[in-house]
Amino acid sequence: MKKINGVLATEVGYLGGHKDNPTYKEVCAGGTGHYEAIEVVFDPRMTSYESVARMFFETHDPTQWNRQGPDVGEQYRSAVFYCNEAQKQVAEHLIALLKGKGFNVVTEVRPAGKFWKAEDYHQDYYDHKGATPYCHGYVKRF
């Protein structure tokens, strides 16, 4: 996401659950209701919500439920969290396009709530590990 011209910042964290200030260990253990998520801050003069959402659908597998690649658990459910009705409509439109292309999309579209920033060691995870991403790779879908 950081490579998109106009993206100003990203943070990973947890969203959608009922536990305040969850930890990675709690989210992985289940029962918090949280999804692992990324918060993307962008300049709408330089890029659009649709461009960011398209990148999400092309770097995240929208056909996998409770997993992404080898990572398995309820925190890996596929979801788009929207901040307003226009974002919701864009996400639903992109899902309809993907379904029209034959993808069995399971991505949920949900209103954004409180975003809880993940621990520092999760930020820029692959950069810190010096590893190649194993869950997310670019796949042209649109």
What's the layout of helices and strands?
Blueprint (H helix, E strand, L loop, with lengths): L6 E9 L8 H6 L5 E8 L6 H11 L7 E2 L2 E2 L6 E4 L2 H16 L7 E4 L4 E2 L7 H5 L13
Parallel strand pairs: 5-6
Antiparallel strand pairs: 1-2, 1-7, 3-4
Describe the structure.
This protein is an alpha+beta fold and 142 residues long. It has a single domain (7-124), classed as 2-Layer Sandwich (Peptide Methionine Sulfoxide Reductase, Chain A), CATH 3.30.1060. It has helices at residues 24-29, 49-59, 85-100, 125-129, and strands at residues 7-15, 35-42, 67-68, 71-72, 79-82, 108-111, 116-117. The strands form 3 sheets. The protein has a 3-stranded antiparallel sheet, with no helix packed on it. It has a two-stranded antiparallel ribbon with strand order 3-4. Strand 5, helix 3 (85-100) and strand 6 (108-111) form a beta-alpha-beta unit. The radius of gyration is 15 Å and the shape is globular. The two termini are 17 Å apart.
Helix-strand category: alpha+beta
Order of strands in the sheet with most strands: 2-1-7
Q: Considering DSSP H and I runs of 4 or more, what fraction of the residues is helical?
A: 25-40%
Number of domains: 1
> Which regions have little confidence, pLDDT < 50, spanning 5+ residues?
none
Q: Number of helical segments?
A: 4
CATH fold name: Peptide Methionine Sulfoxide Reductase, Chain A
CATH architecture: 2-Layer Sandwich
> Which descriptor suits the 3D outline?
globular
- CATH class bucket: Alpha Beta
Report how far apart the termini are: 17 Å
The mean pLDDT is 89
**Secondary structure: number of strands:** 7
CATH superfamily: Peptide methionine sulphoxide reductase MsrA
How much of the polypeptide forms β-strand, as a percent range?
15-25%
What series of H and E elements makes up the topology?
A: EHEHEEEHEEH
Q: What is the radius of gyration?
A: 15 Å
For the largest beta-sheet, the strand count, sense and barrel status come to:
3 strands, antiparallel
